[in-house]
Amino acid sequence: MYKLFIEGGIEFMSILSLELLAILFMAVISVMAIITKNRSISQNQHWLGYLKSLGLLALVTGVLGQLVGLFSAFDYIEQVGNVSPKMLFSGIKVSMITTLYGFVIFIVSYILWFGLEVLLTINKEKSQS
């Protein structure tokens, strides 16, 4: 995992990791707020929207990391001239690491969002009855 982190580029992989930590932190805070009923239902739904948006931001950050990586690879190819297909595909593979990490974070955020929405709905129904 550490090797992939370094290969993917420390800048974008660090940003993506910070976004993942923010998503997990928001999920924990939301669970505590839903269970203890510290916030209203509309405030909780608002926070869950932020959770979903952070996941989308991670996806976009991952794609941006890939585009920057591809731009660097193509710039290198332009300077060197003739590059073997193996080297080209190796560069493309490395550029995809940030996109994959962004997709994983996006999926995690949506799973958390869905689970918290269900928990919020269950608590809302309990409080109404």
What class, by secondary structure content?
A: mainly alpha
What sequence of helices (H) and strands (E) makes up the elements?
A: HHHH
Please give the share of residues in helix. Answer: over 70%
The count of β-strands is 0
Gap between N and C termini? 48 Å
| Rg | 20 Å
Mean pLDDT reading: 89
Strand percentage lies at: under 5%
Shape: rod-shaped
Largest sheet: none
Question: Low-confidence parts lasting 5 or more residues at pLDDT below 50?
Answer: none
Q: How many domains make up the 3D coordinates?
A: 1
Determine the number of helices (DSSP H or I, runs of at least 4 residues): 4
Give a concise summary.
By secondary structure, the protein is mainly alpha-helical. It is built from four helices and no strands. The model has no long low-confidence stretch (mean pLDDT 89).
Please tell me about this protein's structure.
The protein starts with a helix and ends with a helix. It has one domain. It has four helices and no strands. The chain is 91% helix and 0% strand. The mean pLDDT is 89. It has 129 residues and is an all-alpha fold.
Set out the fold topology.
Layout: H1 2-7, H2 10-36, H3 41-80, H4 85-128
Helix pairs in contact: 2-3, 2-4, 3-4
